Amino acid sequence: MVKNRGGWTLIEMLITVAIIGIVAMIAPQVINQTTKVFILGKAKLELQREARSTMYLLTREIRQAQANSVIIDQANSQPYYSRIQFTKSQNTKVTIAQNGTQLVMTVGNNITTLTKNLAYLVFTFPRSDDLTIVSVSITLQEQIYGGAYKALHMASERVRVMD
């Protein structure tokens, strides 16, 4: 006669505890890694979107400049070639400059912050014999996790001033 006993044996309990222990040790690492991948992907997407819109605004404004009014120089205590000044039609003065980690555009008396994630900005004339072409190079960066940064560099080599 076989008796049906309800319950678990000691070996079954030990195996269950061991499996739960292994899962408990691995789960936080998997969750942490998944979170880092998500944050990195989100930062990359935001930087790409911000860089695209910033570059679009920069090139649109520079194209409207009067060719003989373009001045590329250095803003106070900022890197060299980090400011461009020009006059648009109807004598509207435009200044685009780096201010710390911000990219600021001043049109007349209106000041607009284009981005707060600026790491690097350079305006140059790629050809010394043609001052109607301006090269724009920007790098945006955003802090992600653990003090690390995600950076995105974007360059537009040829912006023709459409005087």
Description:
The chain is of the alpha+beta class. The chain has one domain (10-160). It is 33% helix and 36% strand. The chain is built from one helix and eight strands; from the N terminus they run αββββββββ. Strands 1-2-3-4-5 form a five-stranded antiparallel sheet, with helices on one face. Strands 6-7-8 form a three-stranded antiparallel sheet, covered by helices on one side. It is rod-shaped. The mean pLDDT is 88.
Summed up:
It is built from 1 helix and 8 strands, in the order H-E-E-E-E-E-E-E-E. The chain is of the alpha+beta class and 163 residues long.
What is the percent of helical residues?
25-40%
Order of helices and strands: HEEEEEEEE
Whole-number count of domains: 1
Major β-sheet strand ordering:
1-2-3-4-5
**Which word captures the global form?**
rod-shaped
Tell me the total number of β-strands.
8
Layout: helices, strands, pairs:
Layout: H1 10-63, E1 71-73, E2 83-88, E3 92-99, E4 102-107, E5 110-115, E6 118-124, E7 133-143, E8 149-160
Antiparallel strand pairs: 1-2, 2-3, 3-4, 4-5, 6-7, 7-8
Describe this protein with a few key phrases.
163 residues, alpha+beta, 5-stranded antiparallel sheet, 3-stranded antiparallel sheet, 1 helix, 8 strands, 33% helix
